[in-house]
Each structure stands twice: as C-alpha cells, then as structure tokens.
C-alpha cells in the first residue's frame, strides 16, 4: 500500500500534527505564535482553522511556563505538543524539562505518565542572529527520562512526530530548521519504522558515516564525492539520539571497519562522543582506524558571516574520510 | 489590624529590618510606612488572639461560612492540627536518631495547612511544595509516604491520581506551573462554571514566601490569568526563606503579587484555622464557579527550623520565636474550643491519639523495607527503554557475582562474596 505525496519537511510535520490531532482530541498544540501565524516557520499553519483555539493556542513568551503547563496538562490526561520557537530559547525551560518532565514518572513510581512532545527547530545555516542556530540536543540526550529524536527527511518527519505524540514518555523532537523546505516523498499509508531505529540510507563497504538531522544530507553528499574517488561509504541516519540504535551501527562497522560521526554541535561531550566511545567498546577488534568525529567547533555558535566555516560540510567530511582511510 | 501598638520588641525588630524595601504610600489620607511585613496590612482574622470568634463586619461572608460548620468540623480541625504537630515532632526525633536523612517541620503552620486543606473539595487537585504534611492528612494521604521519602526509600511514589495530592516539589515554584496546566485542562474539559453538582473542580497550589522569588510563580500567575483557570495560589508566608527574612526579598506584600497579572489577592491570619478555612473555601468555590484564579497569603511563622539541617539561632532572635510561640495556632484554637464548652476529655483523647500515631509512625519506620537494589531502574520511562534494561541486567549480574544479594536490605556491611 502506498499513497505517496511530495512534501517539504515543514509541511510533513504539519501533516503529521494534523493527523495526530484528528486521531485524538487529547492532543493539544501550543507555543509562541503557533496559532494564527502558524509558527515562525509555518509548521503549524492551518491547524487553528481546523481544530479551534481550545486545541491549538498561543502561549505567553515564557518557555518555563510553556513546559510547566504542558506537564500539568499531561497530568490531566492530555498529550501536549509544545513548541519552543528556537533552539537557543529552550534554556529558560531547562529545569522544567530535566528536573520535572524527565523525572515525574520516576518520582511518582510510575503513577504519572508524561506524554509531552517538545518540538524544537534546531541547527544553523540560515544566517540568523545569535541564539537561533544552536544544537542543544546533547543536554537532553544526557538526561534520563527523556527521549530525543530528529528526522532528516519528510517521510520520517511525518511519521516520527506522530510516534512522538503516541509515546508515553517525554520526547524532544528536534527539527532540522535549515532543511525545513527540503522536499521528499511521504508515504501516508506506509508502515512506520520504530521511532528509535536507525536506518541505512546508502550501502557501502569501506567506511560507515553516521549522521542525523540536518547533517544527513551533507553525509550523503560526501558519500557521493567519495564514490567518485573510489571510496564506498555506508551512510546511517540514526534518527534517534536517545536511545541510540547501536546494534544497527555495530553491524555496519563490523563490515566496514571504519567510522566517522558527524553533527552540527561542537564535538566535546556530544552525541558523537557517546557513539565513538560505545563503538570502540563494541567493535574494538573490527576497527581499522580510530573513530573520527566531525562537528562544529567548541565555541559559541558564530555570527552569520562565519557560520559556513563553523558548520561541517562535505569537504570537511572528505578531509576526515582521507584521515580515516589512511590507517 | 490595630495591633501595632501592642507589638512586642521582637516583632519591632522585624519591622525595622526594612533594609531594602521600604515603600511609602498614601493610605487613608495619611502617610504610612508599608513593608511586606507590616502589621498595618489588613488581614482576615475570625478568631482573635484570645481565642474568641470575633469577625469584623466586612468579613461577613467568611463568618457565614464558619457559622455553617458543625461542632464536629471544629473538632476535626483541632484533631488534625494536633495530629500533624505530634507527627512533626516524631519525624524530627526520627531524624535526630538517624532514621531519616532529613525532616522538614511545619510547626507553626498547622492552622494555615489544616484550615485550607479542609476547604479543598474531595476531587479538587492539590499541588504542594514540600512542607505540606498538614494538607496531606486532610486528604487522607498516608503519612508513612512522607517518612519513606525523607528516609531515602524513594522520591515520593504516592499516586496523585488517587490522592489528588500531588508529589512534593523540591525545586521551588516549579509545581505552580503544573497546577496551572492542570487547571487549564479542567477548563478545556468543561469542568468549570457549569453549576452542575460534582462536575466543577478547582486546583490549589501551595508555596512559601521564599518561592515567590522564583520566575515560575510569575509565569504561573500569567498563564493562570490568561486562561482564567479555576485555581487558588496559597502562599504560606512563614517569614523566613531559610535565613533570609521575607522583607529583604519582597518589595510589596505577597498578597499583592498577583495584581499586575489581574489576580486578586487577600491576606489571611495564617495562625487562625477558621479564617484559613473560610477564605480558602470561598475562593475555591469562586474558582470552581469560573471566576478565575486568586491568591491567598497566609501570614504565619515558621516556629521550627527550615529543615533538620538548619540552625535558625544563627540568623534570628529567640525573642522573635518566643513571640510567635505565644501565638501558637493550636493554643488559640484550643482556647476557642474550651470556650465553646469542649471538655478536657476531648483534649486527652486527642493527646492519646497523637501518642498512638507517633508509636505507629516509629514502628512503621523501623519496619520499613529497604528498596530493592535495582529499584532505581524502575519507572525511569513508562515505555521499555534499552539502556535501562541493559544497565539493570548488568547490575543484577554484578551483584550476583558478589554473592547474590539483590536487595539493599542487608545492613550496612557490604557482602564481598563470603558466607553470610
């Protein structure tokens, strides 16, 4: 069965939200400017007209309040989907996310479930001012009690937002904002892959390249360049940053013996740190070279004129490919 | 209150401690100094300090609520106040004996807690901070749950869906947002202002004077006002945020904190159980009827320490404490009851019940099973999670390799695999 439509990532999330809101009247959508405006990226456009202001409404510009009230609504049996307008605005809600939302199920010995989704447009590459281009995913992946996922394409965006809403645990849903307008096929009738499962997007034999969110496109681009140089790269989109589908990565690395992990965030104590550590533990005898990480630098996200230098691109990935292949 | 002239020296010390926040304002055509502590501020008091029921005319609405109560309600109030006082003392003793890691006494705040707690309907939801043991017993929460938490067996663990009394919130003010979200949900669910019996519900959230400094409380006021939530914010102003006196942090009295958000506030004598009951009852009824959120400041005093780890003698005058001990909410209500003709038998019976409770709490504490060693892995997530399952299995294997004990209920001696 397939019912294919071409959608951008932004439109696919919109379609997924609409589907979830149709499926259950307990699903609420709120955040800054999400209602009439449809959010600054128009991800929630049209939902107000369809569902009314009791299902989707604007919140005051108070991120802690947005997440704190989402928790109370979840206690009342709702399934709130809260939008944080930009990555760099999530920190006022940090306590509500890591000390309340993440821990209430544990604190209540399982009596409270926290089916809250936090949508966060993240990452750089859009020429924005400060605080609009960050990649804070590691903070949340580090916190027990949270699940963290990030789609890289429209089909995943459509399905993963619905899976996040159906999860009985809190889910941080990181949306690759510079890829919002990237189009692709969405199978509206397809069977969704499990939310935390990684996927191999390109088969290869020489090297495994692991990416997620906005860097998946870049990794595929690098694999294409490498192909022309006679290097066969296997590209894995991990899709889920907590938990991580290590089994899938291990299978690939056992075959290729080499691995690069990439993301936009600085590499120090990052998602790639965790993957590199775990893979060196699980694949020690299969590795021909150390795991190399390619990320942003460990600096505050730079001013827009410098972001091209900050963000890893296909050339930076190829530089790493050369190093890994030299072993 | 017209009691300025009677204020003894210790409270004058408090009143002159207006280092930062003195405000001059025009009031009744004369200039008065108003600090957040000022005894000039009117508050609802129904029982005077001599234990006489003496409401003023302007408090007719509250007087009527009290006149609607039966004697057995009064006796219940006293029983609960005495019960929680006895419990508090026992828990403090258990902490001193090393049975609890910490205790947070509510001594002095019994009237505020028992009065307001009984004014909350059986299906209304209560979002406490961490000192609301008194409120807990008004809603049938097993006090052993609190002992368990402060003994370090778990982080709470009671079922808020069942008790309607939510988990203790240790990061100050965070739960006021949960309360507001819950109250927003009541509105979305059509549980407000219908007038249908047993349909309409409200939420009450408790916090202290210190917590009002937290941004979350201001955000809770804002969301509550925006959604006109069925909600009462109940602040117990016990006048000390650990070592910081309330007026050093608050430029205006707490009951006026909601004004900028459009939330009306009222100060009530927090050591007057009847006033606390009546004001809370009225505002919870109003909230259920759809009149929106309100703020209550219960003006009381923390007679005990902030916690058993605190030493209040380092920052406050013993005369000040003595002054408030003479205004003990239990003594005032006992005097009232005796004037109502309640005999010694009742008070003897209450004391006996308190001793029995203390014994039960003590025995339950000693008999309390330790948590299973792998309990930390339970309920981290609601749905299965591979990391948790893997680490739980690893710990189990590790413990078995050391001799097979799977519960921490083995005393303090580690078992390194020898015979036991």
Structure report:
The complex is a heterodimer of chains A (327) and B (420). With 327 residues, chain A is an alpha/beta fold. Chain A contains twelve helices and 14 strands. A seven-stranded mixed β-sheet of chain A has the order 3-2-4-5-7-6-12, sandwiched between helices. Chain A has a five-stranded mixed β-sheet with strand order 9-11-10-13-14, sandwiched between helices. The N and C termini of chain A lie far apart (46 Å). The model of chain A has no long low-confidence stretch (mean pLDDT 97). Chain B has three domains: 4-34, no CATH class; 57-367, Thiamin diphosphate (ThDP)-binding fold, Pyr/PP domains (Rossmann fold), CATH 3.40.50; 373-420, no CATH class. In chain B, the strands form three sheets. A five-stranded parallel β-sheet of chain B has the order 3-4-5-9-8, sandwiched between helices. A two-stranded antiparallel sheet of chain B has the order 1-2. The model of chain B is unreliable at 1-34 and 409-420 (pLDDT under 50). With 420 residues, chain B is an alpha/beta fold. Chain B is 41% helix and 10% strand. The A-B interface holds A 28, 54, 59-60, 62, 64-65, 67-78, 92, 95-96, 99-100, 103-114, 144-145, 147, 167-169, 196, 243 and B 154-162, 166-167, 169, 171, 174, 176-186, 188-189, 215-216, 219-220, 222-223, 226, 378-383, 385-388.
């Amino acid at each position: 069965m397939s019912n294919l439509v071409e959608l951008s990532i932004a439109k696919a999330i919109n379609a997924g939200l609409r589907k979830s809101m149709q499926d259950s009247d307990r699903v609420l959508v709120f955040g800054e400017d999400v209602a009439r405006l449809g959010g600054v990226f128009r991800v929630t456009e049209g939902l107000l007209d369809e569902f009314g202001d009791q299902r989707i409404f604007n919140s005051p510009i108070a991120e802690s309040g947005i997440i704190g009230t989402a928790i109370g609504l979840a206690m009342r049996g709702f399934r709130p989907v809260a939008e944080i307008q930009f990555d760099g605005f999530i920190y006022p809600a940090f306590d509500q996310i890591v000390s309340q939302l993440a821990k209430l199920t544990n604190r209540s010995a399982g009596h409270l479930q926290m089916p809250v989704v936090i949508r966060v447009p993240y990452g750089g590459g859009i020429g924005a001012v400060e605080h609009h281009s960050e990649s804070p995913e590691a903070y949340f992946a580090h916190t027990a009690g949270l699940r963290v996922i990030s789609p890289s394409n429209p089909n995943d965006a459509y399905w993963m937002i619905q899976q996040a809403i159906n999860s009985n645990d809190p889910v941080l849903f990181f949306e690759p904002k510079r890829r919002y307008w990237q189009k692709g096929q969405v199978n509206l009738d397809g069977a969704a892959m499990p939310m935390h499962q990684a996927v191999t997007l390109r088969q290869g034999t020489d090297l495994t390249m692991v990416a997620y969110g906005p860097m998946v496109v870049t990794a595929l681009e690098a694999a294409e360049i490498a192909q022309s140089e006679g290097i066969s790269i296997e590209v894995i989109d991990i899709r889920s940053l907590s938990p991580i589908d290590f089994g899938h990565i291990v299978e690939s690395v056992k075959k290729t013996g080499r691995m690069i992990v990439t993301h936009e965030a600085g590499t120090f104590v990052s998602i790639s740190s965790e993957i590199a550590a775990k893979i060196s533990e699980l694949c020690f005898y299969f590795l021909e070279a150390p795991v190399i990480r390619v990320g942003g630098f460990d600096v505050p996200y730079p001013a827009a004129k410098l972001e091209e230098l900050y963000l890893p691109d296909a050339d930076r990935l190829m530089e790493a490919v050369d190093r890994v292949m030299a072993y | 209150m017209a009691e300025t002239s009677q204020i003894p020296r210790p409270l004058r010390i408090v009143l002159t401690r207006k280092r930062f926040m003195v405000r001059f304002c025009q009031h009744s055509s004369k200039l008065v100094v108003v600090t957040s502590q000022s005894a000039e501020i009117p508050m609802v008091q129904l029982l005077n300090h001599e234990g006489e029921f003496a409401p003023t005319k302007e408090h007719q609405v509250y007087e009527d609520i009290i006149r609607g109560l039966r004697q057995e309600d009064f006796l219940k109030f006293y029983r609960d106040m005495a019960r929680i006082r006895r419990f508090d003392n026992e828990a403090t003793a258990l902490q001193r004996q090393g049975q609890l890691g910490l205790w947070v006494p509510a001594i002095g705040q019994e009237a505020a807690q028992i009065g307001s707690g009984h004014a909350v309907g059986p299906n209304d939801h209560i979002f406490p901070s961490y000192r609301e043991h008194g409120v807990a017993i008004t809603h049938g929460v097993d006090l052993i749950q609190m002992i368990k938490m402060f003994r370090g067996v778990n982080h709470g663990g009671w079922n808020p869906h069942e008790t309607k009394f939510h988990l203790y919130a240790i990061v100050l003010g965070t739960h006021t947002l949960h309360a507001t979200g819950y109250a927003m949900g009541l509105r979305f669910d059509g549980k407000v202002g219908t007038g249908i019996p047993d349909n309409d519900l409200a939420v009450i959230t408790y916090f202290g004077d210190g917590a009002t400094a937290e941004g979350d409380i201001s955000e809770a006021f804002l969301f509550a006002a925006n959604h006109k939530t069925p909600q009462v914010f109940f602040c117990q102003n016990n006048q000390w945020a650990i070592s910081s006196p309330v007026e050093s942090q608050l430029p205006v009295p707490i009951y006026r904190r909601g004004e900028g958000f459009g939330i009306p506030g009222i100060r009530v004598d927090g050591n007057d159980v009847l006033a606390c009951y009546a004001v809370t009852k009225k505002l919870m009824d109003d909230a259920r009827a759809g009149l929106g959120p309100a703020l209550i400041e219960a003006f009381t005093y923390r007679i005990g320490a902030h916690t058993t780890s605190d030493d209040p003698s380092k920052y406050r005058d013993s005369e000040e404490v003595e002054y408030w001990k003479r205004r003990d909410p239990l003594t005032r209500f006992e005097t009232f009851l005796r004037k109502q003709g309640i005999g010694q038998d009742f008070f003897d019976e209450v004391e006996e019940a308190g001793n029995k409770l203390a014994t039960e709490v003590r025995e339950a504490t000693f008999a309390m099973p330790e948590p299973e060693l792998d309990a930390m892995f339970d309920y981290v997530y609601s749905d299965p999670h591979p990391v948790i399952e893997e680490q739980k299995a690893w710990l189990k294997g590790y413990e078995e390799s050391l001799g097979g004990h799977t519960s921490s209920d083995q005393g303090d001696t580690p078992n390194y695999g020898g015979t036991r």
